[in-house]
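Human
Can I borrow your eye for a moment on a structure tokenisation matter? Give me a protein, with the fold worked out from its sequence. Write it directly below this note and I will take it from there.

Assistant
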Amino acid sequence: MSSFSKIYTTNVLQFARFFLALSLFLTLMCTPFKDLFPEFHIVKLKNNLRELSFLNYYLWFTNIKIPYIITLFILALVILGIYPRFLAILHWWATYSTFYTMFIIEGGDQISVIVTLLLIPICILDKRRFGWSELSFPISTNKYLLYFSYTTFIVIQIQLCILYLNAGVAKLSVSEWVDGTAVYYWFNNNIFGAPEYIRVLLGGLFTNNLTVSLINWSVIILEIMLFVSFFLEQKFKYVLFFIAFIFHFFIFLIHGLGTFWISMTGCLILFCFNPTISFKQNLIEIKKILFYKKHLSIQKI
């Protein structure tokens, strides 16, 4: 745990925050405003206020475009990496408020609300002006606060660990996943299925009994292995990060969930990377393990 303070000397934390913020930023920028915030939906939210609704700053304004612009501004600052200790709080607030206001949401938005909240105790100890800055030595920090920060980081990993376990185990209660045909139906779904050019390129894999079953069960095994990776050595986490990154990328290609891929990349960085070495060094380690079968000894945090 003593080396955990090095997380404030590397840019791994900022890369994770960057992807989480970028995902929501692109959702807001690339989706028609009226689809995200239809008037009837906003009226319904304001007429059905709940316990924590007062935290949702979208409901403070008559003109919904004002909080929309505020959110884009906050996310832009997070992406730039300015003052992580202050922007971490605003990042969660913007993510929370947007998630509970948007009419159209997906899983990446939901996990972002949880992870950005848990990142606050970690980022609040980051005294750098720019999260992208790399320092040669850790900044002095109260050891009890550092211990709390480290504990919160583990909680984030446990959250993601359970997320993948639930995703894998839940599929075992669905007959189509058990008999190996679920991915065929999702690939050919009229609404969420693959676009025509993907069907031309990859369609053969989803019509062959052997390959469709292999893909189907590989998804389940990967999600359960990502749960198991919490207990594995760093080198195995790197391998699973690479596979999971490709897996989520193919979800993007086939089902069009681009922002989900981006937000899950941020989560996977927190889950699988060593935060006490630079992002570049983590990528070098992945490259060595995958292609050269050699890797440096990585200090455990």
User: Anything to note?
Assistant: Residues 143-170 form the longest helix (28 residues). DSSP finds 14 helices and no strands in the chain. The mean pLDDT is 91. The CA atoms of residues 180 and 217 lie 7 Å apart.
